[in-house]
Each structure stands twice: as structure tokens, then as C-alpha cells.
Fold this protein.
Amino acid sequence: MQVQEFSDLPIREDVLRGIRDLGFKKPSPIQAQSIIPLLEGRDVIGQAQTGTGKTAAFGIPMVQSIDLLLRRPQGLVLAPTRELAIQIADHIYKISRYTGIKVTAIYGGEKINKQIRKLKSGTHIVVGTPGRIIDHLERGTLRLRDVHMVVLDEADRMLDMGFIKDINKILDRIPKHKQTSLFSATMDKNIWKICDTYM
Ligand code: AMP
């Protein structure tokens, strides 16, 4: 299918409103290619740089996959840095503005108690850096058993920063039938290994 407009895609009206508010007129190529397979529940590997619109490419399907009444984390995005985690969470929040979905960023350097309060109040999507996610898992303040969609964003940078052990530890705590996607500017054998193991 040739995708011209966001309304050509099976995107809900409340999500389309959020996209319109962001000022997006047409889907970028990565959005046109990824949104349908992700909405269908398939695992997607996206080789894409920042600036291509990849956040909305996975953010839109993630928002649309959430069961609002289940106030537990159902979508998880792993990102290499605190700046990126904040930026992704903000972008997904804006997409989901009219849906009632709650998005929480979890990263090192912010007081853990503040994050614990946010997690306790019920959040649907968690965006975080691997180290701090592990910290919450070990404290029992974050449970991933209801997560059905995981995205590894900027996977090459996460591996460069030495997060591979943390990533494996996190992915091993998520139900097996989850949908897993990976976005990376470059692909090498270590990235393909993650894809082989988890996708
Ligand atoms: P990203 O690659 O996800 O970091 O997005 C890069 C920039 O492009 C961000 O400022 C987005 O808000 C913007 N953007 C993403 N998708 C679109 C679109 N379909 N139309 C216009 N701008 C977009």
C-alpha cells in the first residue's frame, strides 16, 4: 500500500489528533514502512538515524497497543542516555495526549523516590536507560510482566556504552510472547545477535 497520509494508516482518531497537534503532515519513510507491521504485532528491525522520525514510528503503534484500564507498564522503550529517554517519553506523551495514557521516563541522575512515586501511581509506558531500569527491577518498584511491546532504541549506542548485560537481564524478565523491535543507526554482529536471541 502506498502511504500518503497518516489517515491512510489504521491509526485511531484520538492518536491522529495528537499527531496533528505535533504539526506532522505526512508520515516519514520509516513511519510509512514500520507503523503497519508494528500495529500487526510483528517484530521490526529499523536501520535509521535520528531525525528520521523513528520515535513516532514505534511510538504510535505502542500508544495504540495499550489497554488504558490496565494501569501497569505494557510498553517499554530502552534508550542509551537520559536525554534521549526524556525526549522519547515527551514525544510519546504528546502523541498520546488525547488517549489518557501515562508515560514515565526512568533514568539515572534523578531521585529514585520521585520515579518510584510515578511508577506507583500507575503508568502504561516506561522509557528508560538500562541501568536505572535494572535498579527499579531489583528494588521491586518496576514489574515487567504485563509488558507486551519492547523497543530498543539506538541499540548500537547502547552496546557501545556497555549495556549489553543489562539489556539481556531486562529482556529475560519480560514475557516470552512479547513484541520486540530494534532501531539502530548501524547494524553489526552484536546487534544481529540480540535480534537472533529475542526477536
Ligand atoms: P526522531 O527521528 O524521532 O528523533 O524525530 C526527529 C524530528 O522529526 C522530531 O523533531 C520530530 O518531531 C519530527 N518528526 C517526526 N515525524 C515527523 C513527520 N511525520 N512530519 C514532520 N516532522 C516529524
Summary: The beta strands are 45-47, 75-78, 103-106, 125-128, 149-152, 179-184. The first helix runs from residue 13 to 21. DSSP finds nine helices and six strands in the chain. The chain has a mean pLDDT of 96.
